[in-house]
Amino acid sequence: MLLDVKLPVYYIFKRILPDILRVLLISIIFQVLKWFFSSYLPEIPLQLATILGSSISLLLAFNVSQSYERWWEGRKIWGAVVNDSRTLVLQVRSFQQADGLPPHEAASQLTAVAHRQIAWCYSLGESLRGQDPLASLAKFLPEPELAYAKTQNNRPLALLALHAAQFRELHQRQTINTFQQVQLDSTLVRLCESMGQAERIKSTVFPANYRLLVHFLIYLFLGTLSLSLVESMGFWEVPVLLLIASTFFLIERTARYLQDPFNNAPTDTPVTAIARNVEINLKQLLQEPNVPATLTSDTFYLM
């Protein structure tokens, strides 16, 4: 996630540099044609470039709007993950206290749920980013649960299954009653829904033909604009065209990066930082001594 700090210039322009160089080449070609083959250049009215530019602006506005909506949906999903993770541990603690379990057994059951939920948050974020979802599990899971998770393709789903098995065992031992098990299962359902929604965003990409069409239309507009300005502005057509091209390509590239909020890029939803906050909250609820610090960044983004 980009932070509210001054973005470095290299980050802003390095992604569009190849496109800017192509536009510069087009502009130079038209300048050469103007000086040596001016009779062969077609006269294109500036109104045509204006119409094309207005149409492309509408397409880019729609693209940015849809892309931001996907990014914001991803952020809302992880907000729900935080809420339900806290709710799950609070429910387990409250239900066990109400049933008067021995303190050591209640603490053991609560620690197992909390650590497994922390592992689930880290594992889900790593899975969405295409990283190894087992990377963070060894710190939070006992060896039998870790071995079980390794046998599953969907590791976050495996952890939810372990949650469900533990709650079923608690109900069979009459540690929790039927109503309490239903409440816990409802929280698991919400966690599973959040996981599915995030996976839907990850697996559903914008059509490539739409992106290529927008890219082609931008080049068509810039070529038309260059032909329109080369006669009236002379050499000044080059910097003016590059400035306009930078604006259009920056908007288009911003929309492209917002389309995937789980791409392990600076524009991502900060799933690792959110999982760390969940870890801090749950470990403090357990009154554990080794609570990690909140993730901070010395750059312009937070992952």
Topology summary:
Elements: H1 9-13, H2 17-36, H3 46-99, H4 103-128, H5 143-150, H6 155-172, H7 178-203, H8 208-233, H9 237-258, H10 271-285
Kindly describe this structure.
This protein is mainly alpha-helical. It has one domain. The chain is built from ten helices and no strands. The chain has helices at 9-13, 17-36, 46-99, 103-128, 143-150, 155-172, 178-203, 208-233, 237-258, 271-285. α4 runs antiparallel to α6 and α6 runs antiparallel to α7. It is elongated. The mean pLDDT is 82. Its main location: membrane.
> How large is the count of helical segments?
10
How many DSSP E strands? Answer: 0
Total domain modules: 1
Q: How confident is the prediction overall: mean pLDDT?
A: 82
The largest sheet, given as strand count, sense and whether it forms a barrel, is: none
Structural class of the secondary elements? mainly alpha
Basic shape = elongated
Strand content: under 5%
- SSE sequence, one letter per element: HHHHHHHHHH
**Measured on Cα atoms, how large is the radius of gyration?**
27 Å
Could you give the distance between the termini?
6 Å
Protein name: Bestrophin family ion channel
Pfam family, one: Bestrophin_2
Organism: Hymenobacter canadensis
Family: Belongs to the anion channel-forming bestrophin (TC 1.A.46) family.
